[in-house]
Amino acid sequence: MNQDQTLPLGDLLQLIKTWAQDLGFDQIEVSPLAMSDHESYLRRWLEQGFHGEMGYMARHVDLRVEPARLHPGALSALSLTMPYLPAGGQDQIQSTLADPEAAYIARYALGRDYHRVIRGRLKSLSAQINQWLINHDHLTFTSRPITDSAPFLEKRFAETSGLGWIGKHTLHINQHRGSYHFLGELLTNLPFSASSKTSSNHCGSCQRCIDICPTNAIVGPYELDARRCIAYLTIEYKGIIPESLRDAIGNRVFGCDDCQLICPWNRHAHVHQIKDFEPRHELDRSTLLSLFAWTEADYLARTEGSPLRRVGFDGWQRNLAVALGNAPFDERIIQALELKRRQSSDLVAAHVDWALTKQRAKANL
Questions:
Q1: Total-model pTM
Q2: For this structure, is 314 an active site residue?
Q3: Please, what's the b/e burial string for 292-312 (b: 16 or more CB within 10 A of its CB; e: otherwise)?
Protein backbone atom coordinates (compact mmCIF):
# COMPACT_ATOMS: atom_id res chain seq x y z
CA MET A 1 0.00 0.00 0.00
CA ASN A 2 1.15 3.53 -0.69
CA GLN A 3 1.90 4.92 2.77
CA ASP A 4 0.52 8.37 1.92
CA GLN A 5 0.72 10.40 5.11
CA THR A 6 -2.25 12.48 3.94
CA LEU A 7 -4.57 9.50 4.30
CA PRO A 8 -6.88 10.53 7.18
CA LEU A 9 -6.74 7.26 9.14
CA GLY A 10 -8.21 8.89 12.23
CA ASP A 11 -11.30 9.92 10.29
CA LEU A 12 -11.52 6.48 8.72
CA LEU A 13 -11.31 4.75 12.10
CA GLN A 14 -14.23 6.81 13.39
CA LEU A 15 -16.24 5.78 10.33
CA ILE A 16 -15.27 2.15 10.89
CA LYS A 17 -16.58 2.31 14.44
CA THR A 18 -19.90 3.63 13.16
CA TRP A 19 -20.11 0.98 10.45
CA ALA A 20 -19.21 -1.73 12.96
CA GLN A 21 -21.98 -0.66 15.33
CA ASP A 22 -24.45 -0.72 12.45
CA LEU A 23 -23.37 -4.33 11.84
CA GLY A 24 -24.09 -5.34 15.44
CA PHE A 25 -20.65 -4.97 17.01
CA ASP A 26 -20.71 -2.98 20.20
CA GLN A 27 -17.01 -2.19 20.64
CA ILE A 28 -13.97 -1.84 18.40
CA GLU A 29 -10.38 -0.94 19.22
CA VAL A 30 -7.00 -1.27 17.52
CA SER A 31 -3.85 -3.14 18.44
CA PRO A 32 -0.57 -3.33 16.52
CA LEU A 33 0.47 -6.74 15.22
CA ALA A 34 3.49 -7.07 17.45
CA MET A 35 4.85 -10.32 18.82
CA SER A 36 2.65 -11.61 21.62
CA ASP A 37 4.08 -11.88 25.11
CA HIS A 38 1.96 -14.99 25.74
CA GLU A 39 4.29 -17.47 24.06
CA SER A 40 5.75 -18.78 27.33
CA TYR A 41 2.29 -19.08 28.89
CA LEU A 42 0.91 -20.90 25.84
CA ARG A 43 3.83 -23.32 25.63
CA ARG A 44 3.62 -24.12 29.35
CA TRP A 45 -0.14 -24.72 29.07
CA LEU A 46 0.42 -27.11 26.18
CA GLU A 47 3.28 -28.91 27.94
CA GLN A 48 0.96 -29.60 30.88
CA GLY A 49 -1.48 -31.25 28.50
CA PHE A 50 -4.28 -28.89 29.53
CA HIS A 51 -5.50 -28.72 25.91
CA GLY A 52 -6.61 -32.37 26.04
CA GLU A 53 -7.51 -33.68 22.58
CA MET A 54 -7.61 -30.21 21.02
CA GLY A 55 -4.58 -30.93 18.89
CA TYR A 56 -5.13 -27.80 16.82
CA MET A 57 -4.04 -25.75 19.84
CA ALA A 58 -0.57 -27.26 19.62
CA ARG A 59 -0.23 -26.56 15.90
CA HIS A 60 1.09 -23.30 14.50
CA VAL A 61 2.23 -21.88 17.85
CA ASP A 62 4.59 -19.67 15.85
CA LEU A 63 1.63 -18.07 14.07
CA ARG A 64 -0.26 -17.58 17.33
CA VAL A 65 2.58 -15.53 18.78
CA GLU A 66 3.54 -13.76 15.52
CA PRO A 67 0.16 -12.97 13.95
CA ALA A 68 1.45 -10.72 11.17
CA ARG A 69 2.38 -13.95 9.39
CA LEU A 70 -1.31 -14.86 9.16
CA HIS A 71 -1.84 -12.07 6.65
CA PRO A 72 1.26 -10.87 4.78
CA GLY A 73 1.52 -7.12 4.92
CA ALA A 74 -0.79 -6.76 7.90
CA LEU A 75 0.08 -3.85 10.17
CA SER A 76 -2.81 -3.67 12.63
CA ALA A 77 -5.71 -5.64 14.03
CA LEU A 78 -9.17 -4.27 14.60
CA SER A 79 -10.60 -6.14 17.60
CA LEU A 80 -14.38 -6.17 17.95
CA THR A 81 -16.95 -7.56 20.36
CA MET A 82 -20.51 -8.71 19.72
CA PRO A 83 -22.86 -9.58 22.62
CA TYR A 84 -24.77 -12.87 22.62
CA LEU A 85 -26.66 -13.00 25.94
CA PRO A 86 -30.32 -13.66 25.00
CA ALA A 87 -33.40 -11.99 26.43
CA GLY A 88 -34.02 -13.31 29.91
CA GLY A 89 -30.37 -12.84 30.71
CA GLN A 90 -28.82 -14.52 33.70
CA ASP A 91 -32.15 -15.13 35.43
CA GLN A 92 -33.07 -17.62 32.72
CA ILE A 93 -29.68 -19.29 33.03
CA GLN A 94 -30.22 -19.80 36.74
CA SER A 95 -33.75 -21.11 36.34
CA THR A 96 -32.70 -23.61 33.65
CA LEU A 97 -29.77 -24.91 35.69
CA ALA A 98 -32.04 -25.27 38.70
CA ASP A 99 -34.54 -27.41 36.79
CA PRO A 100 -33.18 -31.00 36.62
CA GLU A 101 -35.61 -31.90 33.82
CA ALA A 102 -34.43 -29.02 31.61
CA ALA A 103 -31.54 -29.25 29.16
CA TYR A 104 -28.95 -26.53 29.62
CA ILE A 105 -27.17 -25.32 26.49
CA ALA A 106 -24.51 -22.63 26.69
CA ARG A 107 -26.06 -19.31 25.75
CA TYR A 108 -23.71 -18.74 22.83
CA ALA A 109 -24.96 -21.88 21.10
CA LEU A 110 -28.72 -21.30 21.08
CA GLY A 111 -28.90 -19.63 17.68
CA ARG A 112 -26.96 -19.53 14.43
CA ASP A 113 -23.28 -20.45 14.44
CA TYR A 114 -21.41 -17.31 15.46
CA HIS A 115 -18.53 -18.12 13.09
CA ARG A 116 -20.85 -17.59 10.14
CA VAL A 117 -22.54 -14.51 11.57
CA ILE A 118 -19.42 -12.64 12.60
CA ARG A 119 -17.31 -13.65 9.62
CA GLY A 120 -20.02 -12.40 7.26
CA ARG A 121 -20.26 -9.09 9.06
CA LEU A 122 -16.51 -8.66 9.18
CA LYS A 123 -16.47 -9.17 5.42
CA SER A 124 -19.14 -6.49 5.08
CA LEU A 125 -17.07 -4.14 7.22
CA SER A 126 -14.01 -4.86 5.10
CA ALA A 127 -15.98 -4.05 1.94
CA GLN A 128 -17.03 -0.70 3.39
CA ILE A 129 -13.44 0.13 4.30
CA ASN A 130 -12.26 -0.89 0.86
CA GLN A 131 -14.87 1.27 -0.87
CA TRP A 132 -13.93 4.28 1.24
CA LEU A 133 -10.27 3.81 0.32
CA ILE A 134 -11.13 3.46 -3.36
CA ASN A 135 -13.04 6.72 -3.12
CA HIS A 136 -9.89 8.28 -1.67
CA ASP A 137 -7.65 6.85 -4.42
CA HIS A 138 -6.06 4.11 -2.30
CA LEU A 139 -6.55 0.86 -4.11
CA THR A 140 -4.36 -1.65 -2.27
CA PHE A 141 -6.37 -2.43 0.86
CA THR A 142 -6.13 -6.00 2.11
CA SER A 143 -7.69 -7.64 5.16
CA ARG A 144 -8.40 -10.99 6.79
CA PRO A 145 -11.44 -11.60 9.03
CA ILE A 146 -10.94 -13.89 12.02
CA THR A 147 -13.34 -15.20 14.64
CA ASP A 148 -12.09 -18.27 16.44
CA SER A 149 -11.09 -19.49 13.01
CA ALA A 150 -7.31 -19.10 12.82
CA PRO A 151 -4.29 -19.56 15.11
CA PHE A 152 -4.64 -16.10 16.61
CA LEU A 153 -4.59 -15.17 20.31
CA GLU A 154 -7.87 -13.27 20.15
CA LYS A 155 -8.31 -12.65 23.86
CA ARG A 156 -4.77 -11.39 24.25
CA PHE A 157 -5.07 -8.96 21.36
CA ALA A 158 -8.47 -7.77 22.58
CA GLU A 159 -6.75 -7.09 25.88
CA THR A 160 -3.86 -5.17 24.34
CA SER A 161 -6.30 -3.13 22.25
CA GLY A 162 -8.02 -1.87 25.40
CA LEU A 163 -11.27 -3.83 25.08
CA GLY A 164 -10.94 -5.51 28.46
CA TRP A 165 -8.88 -8.13 30.22
CA ILE A 166 -8.54 -11.90 30.49
CA GLY A 167 -10.23 -13.04 33.68
CA LYS A 168 -9.21 -15.76 36.09
CA HIS A 169 -11.57 -18.12 34.24
CA THR A 170 -9.54 -17.33 31.08
CA LEU A 171 -12.48 -15.61 29.36
CA HIS A 172 -12.39 -12.04 28.10
CA ILE A 173 -14.12 -9.48 30.35
CA ASN A 174 -15.06 -5.88 29.69
CA GLN A 175 -15.64 -3.61 32.66
CA HIS A 176 -18.83 -2.16 31.17
CA ARG A 177 -20.22 -5.21 29.36
CA GLY A 178 -19.08 -8.32 31.18
CA SER A 179 -18.06 -11.46 29.29
CA TYR A 180 -21.06 -12.67 27.30
CA HIS A 181 -19.63 -11.57 23.97
CA PHE A 182 -17.89 -12.97 20.92
CA LEU A 183 -14.57 -11.64 19.69
CA GLY A 184 -13.76 -10.92 16.09
CA GLU A 185 -10.74 -9.41 14.37
CA LEU A 186 -9.96 -7.79 11.08
CA LEU A 187 -6.27 -7.91 10.20
CA THR A 188 -5.49 -5.03 7.86
CA ASN A 189 -2.57 -3.51 6.02
CA LEU A 190 -3.57 -0.07 7.29
CA PRO A 191 -1.11 1.54 9.75
CA PHE A 192 -3.69 2.47 12.37
CA SER A 193 -2.27 3.78 15.61
CA ALA A 194 -2.84 1.59 18.64
CA SER A 195 -5.81 2.52 20.79
CA SER A 196 -5.06 4.90 23.62
CA LYS A 197 -7.14 2.81 26.03
CA THR A 198 -5.50 0.49 28.49
CA SER A 199 -6.91 -2.74 29.92
CA SER A 200 -6.26 -3.04 33.61
CA ASN A 201 -7.15 -6.34 35.22
CA HIS A 202 -10.10 -5.84 37.57
CA CYS A 203 -10.46 -9.37 38.94
CA GLY A 204 -8.68 -8.34 42.12
CA SER A 205 -8.91 -10.91 44.91
CA CYS A 206 -12.18 -12.36 43.58
CA GLN A 207 -12.09 -16.06 42.76
CA ARG A 208 -15.79 -16.86 42.51
CA CYS A 209 -15.29 -18.43 39.08
CA ILE A 210 -12.66 -20.77 40.51
CA ASP A 211 -14.85 -21.75 43.45
CA ILE A 212 -18.03 -22.38 41.45
CA CYS A 213 -16.57 -24.50 38.64
CA PRO A 214 -18.49 -27.79 38.92
CA THR A 215 -15.53 -29.96 37.87
CA ASN A 216 -12.70 -27.84 39.35
CA ALA A 217 -11.37 -27.19 35.85
CA ILE A 218 -9.98 -23.78 36.80
CA VAL A 219 -6.95 -25.15 38.59
CA GLY A 220 -5.64 -21.72 39.53
CA PRO A 221 -6.05 -18.08 38.56
CA TYR A 222 -5.82 -17.83 34.74
CA GLU A 223 -5.17 -21.60 34.48
CA LEU A 224 -7.80 -23.82 32.85
CA ASP A 225 -7.38 -27.58 32.55
CA ALA A 226 -9.66 -28.15 29.58
CA ARG A 227 -9.70 -31.88 30.25
CA ARG A 228 -11.93 -31.21 33.25
CA CYS A 229 -13.99 -28.40 31.71
CA ILE A 230 -17.65 -29.22 30.98
CA ALA A 231 -17.50 -27.19 27.77
CA TYR A 232 -14.60 -29.33 26.57
CA LEU A 233 -16.14 -32.61 27.74
CA THR A 234 -19.50 -31.95 26.09
CA ILE A 235 -18.24 -30.37 22.85
CA GLU A 236 -14.60 -30.96 21.96
CA TYR A 237 -14.05 -34.35 23.59
CA LYS A 238 -15.26 -37.25 21.47
CA GLY A 239 -14.65 -40.16 23.86
CA ILE A 240 -16.14 -41.64 27.00
CA ILE A 241 -16.60 -38.98 29.66
CA PRO A 242 -14.80 -39.99 32.88
CA GLU A 243 -17.28 -41.32 35.40
CA SER A 244 -15.72 -39.19 38.12
CA LEU A 245 -16.87 -36.04 36.30
CA ARG A 246 -20.36 -37.09 35.19
CA ASP A 247 -22.29 -36.19 38.34
CA ALA A 248 -20.89 -32.65 38.24
CA ILE A 249 -22.11 -32.15 34.67
CA GLY A 250 -25.69 -32.03 35.95
CA ASN A 251 -28.10 -31.05 33.19
CA ARG A 252 -25.49 -29.27 31.03
CA VAL A 253 -25.65 -30.95 27.61
CA PHE A 254 -23.62 -28.50 25.53
CA GLY A 255 -21.17 -26.20 27.21
CA CYS A 256 -21.27 -24.47 30.56
CA ASP A 257 -21.70 -20.86 31.70
CA ASP A 258 -21.24 -21.20 35.46
CA CYS A 259 -18.04 -19.17 35.64
CA GLN A 260 -19.75 -16.35 33.74
CA LEU A 261 -22.94 -16.60 35.76
CA ILE A 262 -21.06 -15.98 39.00
CA CYS A 263 -18.80 -13.21 37.69
CA PRO A 264 -19.68 -9.83 39.28
CA TRP A 265 -18.84 -7.99 36.07
CA ASN A 266 -21.74 -9.66 34.27
CA ARG A 267 -24.18 -7.46 36.11
CA HIS A 268 -23.25 -5.13 33.22
CA ALA A 269 -23.76 -7.74 30.49
CA HIS A 270 -25.67 -6.54 27.44
CA VAL A 271 -28.52 -8.51 25.89
CA HIS A 272 -27.88 -9.04 22.19
CA GLN A 273 -29.95 -7.46 19.42
CA ILE A 274 -28.91 -9.95 16.72
CA LYS A 275 -31.76 -11.91 15.18
CA ASP A 276 -29.39 -14.71 14.13
CA PHE A 277 -28.61 -15.39 17.80
CA GLU A 278 -32.23 -15.87 18.82
CA PRO A 279 -32.82 -19.40 20.25
CA ARG A 280 -33.84 -21.96 17.65
CA HIS A 281 -36.32 -24.80 18.19
CA GLU A 282 -36.98 -23.56 21.76
CA LEU A 283 -33.54 -24.78 22.78
CA ASP A 284 -33.54 -22.34 25.68
CA ARG A 285 -36.51 -24.13 27.26
CA SER A 286 -36.34 -27.75 26.07
CA THR A 287 -36.47 -30.76 28.35
CA LEU A 288 -33.85 -33.49 28.41
CA LEU A 289 -36.39 -36.10 27.34
CA SER A 290 -37.62 -34.08 24.38
CA LEU A 291 -34.09 -33.64 23.03
CA PHE A 292 -33.16 -37.26 23.72
CA ALA A 293 -36.11 -38.31 21.56
CA TRP A 294 -34.56 -36.69 18.49
CA THR A 295 -33.61 -39.08 15.73
CA GLU A 296 -30.42 -38.51 13.80
CA ALA A 297 -32.51 -36.95 11.03
CA ASP A 298 -34.07 -34.60 13.60
CA TYR A 299 -30.64 -33.67 14.91
CA LEU A 300 -29.23 -32.95 11.47
CA ALA A 301 -32.26 -30.86 10.48
CA ARG A 302 -32.45 -28.85 13.71
CA THR A 303 -28.75 -28.18 14.08
CA GLU A 304 -28.10 -27.03 10.52
CA GLY A 305 -26.03 -23.86 10.75
CA SER A 306 -25.83 -24.24 14.53
CA PRO A 307 -22.86 -24.67 16.90
CA LEU A 308 -24.61 -27.83 18.14
CA ARG A 309 -23.56 -29.58 14.94
CA ARG A 310 -19.97 -29.61 16.21
CA VAL A 311 -20.57 -32.37 18.76
CA GLY A 312 -22.15 -34.83 16.30
CA PHE A 313 -25.22 -36.97 16.90
CA ASP A 314 -23.41 -39.56 19.03
CA GLY A 315 -21.88 -36.85 21.19
CA TRP A 316 -25.29 -35.20 21.52
CA GLN A 317 -26.89 -38.44 22.72
CA ARG A 318 -23.93 -39.15 25.00
CA ASN A 319 -24.31 -35.80 26.73
CA LEU A 320 -28.07 -36.18 27.11
CA ALA A 321 -27.67 -39.67 28.56
CA VAL A 322 -25.35 -38.31 31.26
CA ALA A 323 -27.80 -35.53 32.09
CA LEU A 324 -30.69 -38.02 32.25
CA GLY A 325 -28.67 -40.15 34.65
CA ASN A 326 -28.24 -37.08 36.84
CA ALA A 327 -31.97 -36.23 36.77
CA PRO A 328 -34.36 -37.29 39.56
CA PHE A 329 -35.90 -40.73 39.13
CA ASP A 330 -38.54 -40.86 36.43
CA GLU A 331 -39.93 -44.02 34.86
CA ARG A 332 -40.13 -42.20 31.54
CA ILE A 333 -36.38 -41.66 31.66
CA ILE A 334 -35.73 -45.35 32.18
CA GLN A 335 -38.02 -46.20 29.26
CA ALA A 336 -36.29 -43.68 27.00
CA LEU A 337 -32.84 -44.94 27.96
CA GLU A 338 -33.78 -48.57 27.41
CA LEU A 339 -35.24 -47.76 24.01
CA LYS A 340 -32.15 -45.81 22.97
CA ARG A 341 -29.85 -48.55 24.28
CA ARG A 342 -31.11 -50.98 21.66
CA GLN A 343 -30.13 -48.73 18.76
CA SER A 344 -27.13 -46.77 19.94
CA SER A 345 -23.41 -46.84 19.21
CA ASP A 346 -20.91 -48.24 21.70
CA LEU A 347 -20.06 -44.71 22.81
CA VAL A 348 -23.67 -43.81 23.57
CA ALA A 349 -24.42 -47.23 25.07
CA ALA A 350 -21.66 -46.84 27.66
CA HIS A 351 -23.28 -43.64 28.95
CA VAL A 352 -26.82 -44.99 28.67
CA ASP A 353 -25.83 -47.97 30.83
CA TRP A 354 -24.39 -45.63 33.44
CA ALA A 355 -27.53 -43.49 33.36
CA LEU A 356 -29.76 -46.56 33.75
CA THR A 357 -27.75 -47.69 36.76
CA LYS A 358 -28.14 -44.24 38.31
CA GLN A 359 -31.86 -44.08 37.63
CA ARG A 360 -32.53 -47.57 38.98
CA ALA A 361 -30.54 -46.82 42.12
CA LYS A 362 -32.71 -43.76 42.71
CA ALA A 363 -35.84 -45.88 42.20
CA ASN A 364 -34.77 -48.13 45.05
CA LEU A 365 -34.08 -45.37 47.54
A1: 0.94
A2: no
A3: bebeeeebeeebeebbbbebe
